[in-house]
């Protein structure tokens, strides 16, 4: 069986294969925190997990793939954790603030780990970058959450903005993640404040975008990110392709 990023099956009890995969991933996360990403080898991970090196590579093709497994798990945990908020709230600001706060809650145990491997993920050519092709599964999951945020809000969204707004909201979340990585306040208090204020600003901006005169500005901001932010050209669809033919 080739290495993959799929989540465990739908059954309540994980299979032995799923348990082994989870054990390897948990062991890798612990060693990455203790020794650093660069100094941790697949052999060390296998030894600590009590499996053969070949078995470790059977589930994960390398350290980069382990990080992708971490991304996928974090995305799945976040999607599950926000379900109650999205089922309850109808205000766009409340929905988005809840989604961002919940991400901070879910990610809290991994803060020191995120600090350590950030220099690898910040490289636009690295497979660990959130904009890389390897990160597509987790990225699509995260953008999907923002699509749900918009779809369930009572705020009306212009049809031409329904595709680009979730992507812009995800980009703003990436900005929050970057701030959170370097946040040294007690309990990452400033990150939570940033999430609240960012959600308020986004809610107001989306409400204003119902005025046709402001919609081109939103599209232009999206094009700006897509054209110039490292990795975005490959990560998100070309906005020009969405424009109707003259």
From TrEMBL:
Assigned keywords, A-Z: DNA-binding
Q: Taxonomically, which superkingdom?
A: Bacteria
Q: Does the keyword DNA-binding apply?
A: yes
Q: Record keywords: DNA-binding included?
A: yes
Known DNA-binding region: 41-60
> What is the protein's given name?
TetR/AcrR family transcriptional regulator
Q: What is any Pfam family matched here?
A: TetR_C_23
Q: Which organism is it from?
A: Streptomyces adustus
Checking InterPro entries in the record gives: DNA-bd_HTH_TetR-type_CS, Homeodomain-like_sf, HTH-type_TetR-like_transc_reg, HTH_TetR, Tet_transcr_reg_TetR-rel_C_sf, TetR_C_23
HTH tetR-type domain residues are 18-78
Q: PROSITE patterns of this UniProt entry?
A: HTH_TETR_1, HTH_TETR_2
A GO MF annotation of the entry reads:
DNA-binding transcription factor activity
